[in-house]
Amino acid sequence: MDAKFSFLNKVDRDPGNLIKGLQLVQAAEGYVSDDGIRAVAEYFSIPPVEVEGVVSFYAQFKRVKPGRHKISVCDGTACHIKGAAQVLEWMRQELRIDSGETTDDGKFSLETVACLGCCSLAPVMSVDGKVYGKLDRKKMVKILKEF
Amino acid sequence: MDPRIKILRIGVASCGIAAGAEAVQSKLKECAGSIPVVGVGCLGSCYAEPMVEAVLEDGSGILYGNVTPDDVPGILELGDAKRFTPPPQREAKQLVRVMALAGRIDPTDFDDYVSHGGYAGLKNALEMSPEEVVNEVKLSGLRGRGGGGFPTGNKWSFLAAKKAEQKILICNADEGDPGAFMDRSLMESVPHQMLEGMLIAAHATGATKLFIYCRAEYPLAIKHLRIAIEQIRERKLNVIDGRTLDIIIKEGAGAFVCGEETALIASLEGKRGTPRFRPPFPTDSGYMNHPSMINNVETFGNVPLILREGGEAYAKIGTAGSKGTKLFALAGDLSNPGLVEVPMGTTIAEIVFEIGGADRDKVKAVQTGGPSGGCIPVELFDTPVDYDSLKALGAIMGSGGMIVIGKDRCMVETARYFLDFTHRESCGKCTFCRVGTTRMFETLERIVAGRGQESDIALLEDLGRKVKAGALCGLGQTAPNPVLATLRYYRNEYEEHVKNHRCPAHQCGALVKLEIDHARCVKCRMCVRTCPVGAIDGDFRIDPEKCTRCNSCLDVCPKNAISRTDIGE
Ligand SMILES: Cc1cc2nc3c(=O)[nH]c(=O)nc-3n(C[C@H](O)[C@H](O)[C@H](O)COP(=O)(O)O)c2cc1C
Ligand code: FES
Questions:
Q1: Which domains does chain B have, with CATH numbers?
Q2: Residue B464, ligand 1, Cβ within 6 A
Q3: B405–A121 C-beta distance less than 8 A
Q4: Is residue B357 exposed (0-12), middle (13-18) or buried (19+ Cβ within 10 Å)?
Q5: pTM of the entire structure?
Q6: Measured at the alpha carbon of residue B243, what is the angle toward residues B241 and B244, in degrees to the nearest 5?
Q7: What is the tens place of the pLDDT at every residue in B255-302?
Q8: Atom of ligand 2 nearest to the CA of A80
């Protein structure tokens, strides 16, 4: 196995840990590369297609390289009611990308997620895992400038 | 500093942190000298985060809300600025039992939990036989808090009756309803409570392998659970009846359907999380074909109470068919969102208006049960929350998400939102769900875009009935609920969309335009400068072709001169 993926040794080779293994790969690479799929397949002794099948099932796993900063706009029910669509529209205007895309300079990637568990602060987004609540356009632009 | 202060507590659960509690915490630590600054969990009034509580010598506490680091010196003098008094009716209507320790103890401190009565339930349970424990749970009348409402004691007795080498216990911490955060709060704030419930269940059922399946979006909950499990191991509390229990946390990977029992089990096995037909039920054949039992976080969180006070005493609270208290994550169009706990049988009006402080004139409905549930119109807010009353209305109790929907929201768009969610989350295994929810979603998209036809309403009803009847698992069987419920109560909104191409709530972008009222406009040019697409000209007219309906102008206008109106022909 590619030495780059030696961190897989942290989990048992039990196929029940496949998702954990993929989570480790994604944490290391920022996404799951073709090499990552092959390494995981080899480690757990399962065919690469099956690994790919699991990867494509779960929303968490990304198959393309993301930007340096990950923006997740919450579109859970509470945030939707409180204007998540508007937040996305502002994002589109500021960054010129849609959900699922990365800016040309590779700085930001944008995605929508369902509920970050901070519904009482809706509308909410997170950048690199840090959650920002009660967004309005001004606040959002200011947060983007921090990066 | 005021010498009466003994402890300073600060809420550093996820919502506190998102509101900026960490900066306040560092400032407190910097200024508080020898007084302990304790990071605690959810204080319930999420709308007032960050929150600080100064605990005095006599044990009483003074709360501060919306605190910034600059407020810290004032708080240390017990000043009046930023003092927070929860609205009295919010306090009066709540009955905080499951969440009693949230915000009062340090979630990472084992002894803090024990000194507040923690693990007394487990101690009692271990002095009883497994059958007696199951019996107490049956007596309590506890029903599953994950949404289904299945009697917990019965489920336990199924697993207990199984003769098997290995039995599995699974805690469902996937909290998939987008817009609900009860389980997150409980795990972050009092992680030991749910674990105590699981240990009691292990004794009652003979299970030896314990899984917690937690969604990956909850890193803080996972962290606190890990710490708590380590503390349990150190104290050998995981040795029950001579057997050493394995306690394993598994992180989900973002799939709503994995909240469904059989899909969850597939995911635990490392596979695609697709559900399968039941029977066999998990208690007969579950994880790796071992008998397995799944309960929700809040269900397990109730168990220590039952074993502490006895099933009969527990059953004194609630209604005939629904016992105990229920947590609700209250959010949406109201002034005081947050986590609330009420006895079963409390009316929706009490929760939304008295506890949540929502404005009676501005509320249209609430949505319970998230994407599997339905809306309840304001006219029916006298309905008590219990499993059976809500079901009768076409809504469900669900896991506890309660979203208040204001009068200015479009119910067709709300239904479209939920179908957008469910059709994407459909695992694709069965046709009714995969194709049926997609067709329903497309139909709703058409309607909100102003391209709907009158026949679409009947089409939605027909599809909805068929998907409910034909789908393999609970996801598909409940996915049409938001559409059918809105059709039941807000049919006129659908009809306006398809017949007159009008959105009565002025929400659907394709059916509205933004307009400036020139009588009110003072020509300050705020809107012109703000508009990101240059849609407003020198005469303060908005070009509907360019305008993206992003509301930026409406939000900045100091005179409220801009509004959304019918686009007209
Ligand atoms: C699509 C779908 C999603 C579900 N999501 C959850 C969930 O996120 N959390 C949960 O506890 N139960 C969820 N359930 C219910 C579980 O399948 C199961 O009934 C529950 O965890 C049993 O525990 P309880 O008896 O303690 O409620 C879901 C069910 C379906 C059909
Ligand atoms: S709906 Fe956005 S945080 Fe819950």
A1: 5-85 (3.40.30.10), 110-314 (3.40.50.11540), 325-406 (3.10.20.600), 411-499 (1.20.1440.230), 509-566 (3.30.70.20)
A2: no
A3: no
A4: middle
A5: 0.94
A6: 130
A7: 999 999 999 999 999 999 999 999 999 999 999 999 999 999 999 999
A8: 1
